[in-house]
Amino acid sequence: MQTVYRPVGRVVSVEQTALLSALTPVAENLIHRHLSQAREWFPHELVPWAQARDFEPGRPCDDLVPMAPEVRSALLVNLLTEDNLPYYYNSIHRMFGTDGPWGEWARRWTAEEGRHSIVLRDYVTVTRALDPVELERGRMQQVSTGFDDQEMVTSMDGFVYVALQELATRISHRNTGAALTDPAGKKIMDRVAADENLHYLFYKDVVQAAIELDPSATMCAIERQVRTFEMPGTTGIRDFGSHAKAIARAHIYDLDIFHDKVLVPVVLKQWAIQSLEGLTADAERARDALLKRLHKLRRAADRLLGRQASPSPA
Hints:
about 325 residues; mainly alpha; Ribonucleotide Reductase, subunit A; about 70% helix; disordered N terminus
């Protein structure tokens, strides 16, 4: 018997409930696919423990692995973003419910994401890549701030947002690993990125199925989420703007990557919004607005790249 979707703590329309119920068999199949592809791994096997030594209270933290400041910024932002997992689970729990495959996926996803913060924290602690005092202060602020999901108007908004966010996170992790000179760090970032890719595939394919069931509602959700998209650490990480600029200068993650490696492959190629038929008037307006926004983002990315390439004035 098919499980009936029951939202938790959020007002959900009859149409949303019907759509999520219709997507339940899709979620079941995607969970089976995920479990067949997911690889078991253990954080402790990837961390270079032989480099570890005691910290002396009050003494400066001298790093063991040389790396550029922008790579440290990327590690910090990546780790603090992962640390906020309780709030992400809470959002998924409220938007998708706990019954059947939705609850099963939320729990499995949370368990896998938890490994990411474990392995990243152990790595930066052992190698002293980040000051543990500042890192802990940053964690306290990030988790105390939480995560604002108010832009996720419907459950479909949640699916769209997480699909885009998981892909962006995968790219950021992989590019951070590529910028590291330490083989252990590269291996860790590649392992975490591989998990994020499987998570992205789950959400991306849920949205694809939703497009087939209700293209108009899904189109409106896609437009809203692209228009308001922010990475989850934007509001909680101290001095996020400075870290984001450093990460962008190193081309680990920037507007160019967001447009060319996230939005174009997913929104235009995978979901093919420009080819959708039978849309309502509102959905048509949403599509037009989104296509214009993509064009503006490309132009803005070009301007930023040109500005970064220009020599600094003497």
